[in-house]
Amino acid sequence: MAATARALGVQRRQVFKHALEKPYTTSWPSATQAAQDEIIDLLCTALQPLSTYFAESRRICKSRLRRQRRRSKSKLQSKPSLSDKALEGKSMLKHVVIGINGTTRALERQAKGQRSEGDLALVVVCKGDVEPQLVAHFPGLAHAARTSKADRAGTAKLRLVGVGSGAERRLAAAVGQPRASALGIRAGMPALDAIIDTAYANVAMPSVPWIGNIAPGCHPAPALHPMAVRELRTSAPVAGKRKSPADAAKPSKKAK
């Protein structure tokens, strides 16, 4: 009898439970794997001058420190200068924001309508290489930045691309930095404008329906959204047949 009870305790049965999904969910804009790969390939090619600029800047900085240690103040000594490709990378920095923090601050300024060096037209996030909590704010923030200045053509076409694992390593090598989990791209350079056009044609705009349009003077009519219900598959222990109070009061055959 004890063995049977233990066996019933180990046995489990499949059950389904229903729960309401969170209404304030944000999803990443849809983009095919081919479109993601094409954008990453174009970025790795176009951003090579940044890697050259950072490499030569570090070399010049080390050379300057060596001269200071030697206390050489001779003005006749020639100072190292940047190459043409490095100078191109230096000018490209005005159109590229590197890192999660810098890209987030740029989107926040756009969402608030503050003046900046330029609105971001493309945001690439390596969501497959970082913890989801670190980049979960980008869909909602990109939607706010896009709709806050919807009257401006550049901002209204903002695109957000979430790419899979392995992209961060390639982008970090292209820009010459240890990490490049997010990149913000501003229009204004032919090489970058071509990438922005590719994203416009292949990636959907970031949209969060429950936020709506936050542009000044815009008051969209409230709308009802369908209730989201999810079904959870789980298991429960197999319980033995319970005796009713009337059956429990009857004497057992052994008692007789």
> Unreliable runs, pLDDT <50, ≥5 residues?
151-155
3D shape: elongated
Mean pLDDT: 81
The structure class reads alpha+beta
Task: Count helical runs.
Answer: 11
Radius of gyration: 30 Å
Strand content: 5-15%
Total number of beta strands = 6
Query: How helical, in percent, are the residues?
Result: 40-55%
For the biggest sheet, the summary is: 4 strands, mixed
Q: Strands of the largest sheet, in order across it?
A: 2-5-3-4
End-to-end C-alpha gap: 20 Å
Give the SSE string.
HEHHHEHEHHHEHEHEH
Distinctive features:
11 helices, elongated, alpha+beta, two-stranded antiparallel sheet, 256 residues, four-stranded mixed sheet
What features would you describe in this structure?
- With 256 residues, this protein is α+β, with helices and mostly antiparallel strands.
- It has helices spanning 2-10, 33-46, 48-69, 84-92, 100-112, 132-135, 138-148, 153-156, 167-175, 190-202, 245-249, and strands at residues 12-20, 96-98, 120-125, 159-162, 182-186, 229-237.
- A 4-stranded mixed β-sheet has the order 2-5-3-4, sandwiched between helices.
- The longest helix has 22 residues, at 48-69.
- The radius of gyration is 30 Å and the shape is elongated.
- It starts with a helix and ends in a 7-residue tail after the last helix.
